[in-house]
């Protein structure tokens, strides 16, 4: 008889499943992607999986690009997928190799004037943009966007655009707060916008100089593409998958990264909403997009949903979201299994959640669902325990939820 896999505490992972330790790490810290993990987690897992230079790794939810960047440093090839165009852009821009001398040539183009604003540079008329930026700040941002759009070389243009996207939150009246964007009056003077941008770009060029030295002898391909984890096809099979999907905690990435998305990736609110509806059902606005064949809903899900309904939650769509989340994750795990080489490994970082005080053991449920998708569950390492949301804490007292790394192999 095989032993059942139970979540076990593993020392040393706690710091690794958050991006905090990379706040000072060049390139990794170019854009605050709060829902990511650390470079060290990827290197540790790659070592545990025995990955060698030249291996191929997939991240089907690439977010801030941590997996791809860390793989690049190790000489491991990688492909990232994400449904959010901003994440694809961020991952690709972080993983390109730049010539700092060429980058510096453009610094003089941003002298702070705004007389060249072209008619075709504008921002979609979406409420959050008007709340986020004062008229003066918006004008400076448009000036910078216009100057960047005139850079011919695509990679250099993207580099500068990432710098601009990187200051948006700072110069706005918003703040990323858990699962949404909060309005906070900061009243940043318009005259600070261009200096903040130049400071950011200079820091990024400095990072490129440091990073290039470390990558001198390394040769690896990394590329991120716009795709849906539930339905993608790559001609390639991978040695490993290192990833972290959205957690079923109602966080909506199209809102959290709303400023970035509106600034350069969507033309209007309808486009943004379409992406929102298409994301994995980890929040209540996402919609069912794919039928799953072969999925047998684990019985525990019905029991949990009944308890959540009984406990009462402040949004009636939460029970449906919980069911939809696991169905979507089944589809994603089927795709992952299809794209793994025999013997290939998956590491998936995920957190348990609570609704109405009811604990949902996302890690062990996904462990079982992965087996339905044809994978063999190897381990569930508990990395740390996280506090519940302020809202839940008030009502249900402090009941931490575990954040784990679920490991499977492909037979
Ligand atoms: C937890 S984040 C990934 C963080 C990443 N591992 C890192 O270190 O930066 C989850 C990502 O899943 C993406 N996502 C949501 N639904 C998706 C889908 N259906 N297909 C692919 N990506 C999706 C989100 O846009 C988000 O970037």
Descriptive labels:
Rossmann fold, globular, alpha/beta, 17% strand, binds S-adenosylmethionine, 411 residues, eight-stranded mixed β-sheet, 12 strands, 15 helices
Describe this structure in words.
The protein is of the alpha/beta class and 411 residues long. The protein folds into two domains: 8-97 and 218-245 and 280-409, Rossmann fold; 107-214, no CATH class. Helix content is 41%, strand content 17%. The strands form three sheets. The protein has an eight-stranded mixed β-sheet with strand order 1-11-12-8-7-2-3-6, sandwiched between helices. A two-stranded antiparallel sheet has the order 4-5. The longest helix is centred in the middle third of the chain and has 22 residues, at 193-214. The two termini are 18 Å apart. The relative contact order is 0.14. The model has no long low-confidence stretch (mean pLDDT 93). Bound molecules: S-adenosylmethionine. Residues 33, 35-37, 61, 63-64, 66, 81-84, 87, 228-230, 243-246, 253, 279-280 line the site of S-adenosylmethionine.
Summarize the structure.
The chain is of the alpha/beta class and 411 residues long. It has 15 helices and twelve strands.
Topology:
Blueprint (H helix, E strand, L loop, with lengths): L7 E2 L29 H10 L7 E4 L6 H8 L3 E6 L2 H11 L4 H5 L22 H6 L2 H15 L4 H18 L2 E4 L2 E4 L9 H22 L7 E5 L11 E6 L9 H4 L1 H7 L4 H10 L20 H13 L6 H21 L1 E12 L1 E3 L2 E3 L1 H11 L3 E11 L3 H7 L4 E9 L2
Parallel strand pairs: 1-11, 2-3, 2-7, 3-6, 7-8
Antiparallel strand pairs: 4-5, 8-12, 9-10, 11-12
Helix pairs in contact: 1-2, 3-7, 6-7, 7-8, 12-13, 13-14
């Amino acid at each position: 008889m095989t032993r059942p896999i139970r979540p076990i505490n593993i020392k040393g992972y706690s710091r690794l499943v958050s991006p905090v330790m990379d706040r000072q790490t060049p390139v990794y810290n170019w854009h605050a992607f709060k829902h990511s993990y650390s470079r060290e987690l990827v290197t540790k897992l790659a070592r545990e999986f025995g990955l060698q230079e030249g291996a191929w790794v997939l991240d089907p939810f690439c977010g801030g690009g941590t997996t791809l960047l860390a793989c690049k440093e190790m000489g491991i090839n990688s492909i990232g997928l994400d449904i959010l165009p901003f994440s694809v852009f961020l991952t690709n821009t972080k993983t390109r190799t730049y010539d700092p001398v060429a980058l510096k040539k453009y610094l003089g183009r941003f002298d702070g004037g705004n007389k060249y604003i072209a008619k075709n540079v504008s921002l979609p008329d979406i409420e959050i943009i008007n709340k986020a930026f004062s008229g003066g700040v918006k004008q400076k941002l448009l000036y910078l966007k216009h100057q960047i759009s005139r850079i011919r070389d695509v990679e250099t243009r993207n580099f500068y655009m990432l710098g601009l996207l990187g200051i948006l939150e700072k110069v706005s009246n918003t703040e990323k707060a858990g699962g949404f964007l909060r309005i906070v009056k900061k009243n940043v003077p318009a005259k600070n916008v261009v200096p903040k941008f130049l400071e950011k770009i200079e820091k990024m060029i400095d990072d490129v100089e440091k990073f290039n030295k470390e990558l001198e002898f390394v040769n690896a391909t990394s590329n991120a593409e716009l795709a849906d984890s539930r339905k993608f096809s790559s001609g390639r099979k991978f040695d490993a998958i290192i990833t972290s999907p959205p957690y079923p905690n109602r966080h909506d990435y199209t809102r959290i990264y709303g400023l970035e998305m509106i600034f350069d990736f969507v033309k209007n609110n309808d486009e943004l909403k379409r992406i929102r509806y298409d994301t994995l059902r980890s929040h209540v606005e996402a919609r069912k997009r794919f039928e799953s064949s072969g999925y047998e809903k684990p019985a525990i899900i019905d029991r949990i949903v009944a308890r959540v309904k009984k406990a009462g939650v402040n949004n009636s769509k939460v029970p449906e979201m919980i069911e939809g989340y696991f169905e979507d994750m089944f589809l994603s795990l089927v795709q992952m299994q299809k794209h793994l080489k025999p013997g290939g490994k998956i590491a998936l970082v995920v957190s348990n959640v609570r609704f109405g005080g009811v604990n949902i053991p996302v890690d062990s449920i996904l462990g079982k669902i992965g087996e339905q998708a044809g994978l063999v569950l190897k381990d569930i390492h508990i990395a740390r325990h996280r506090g519940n949301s302020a809202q839940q804490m008030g009502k249900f007292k402090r009941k931490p939820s575990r954040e784990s790394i679920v490991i499977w192999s492909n037979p």
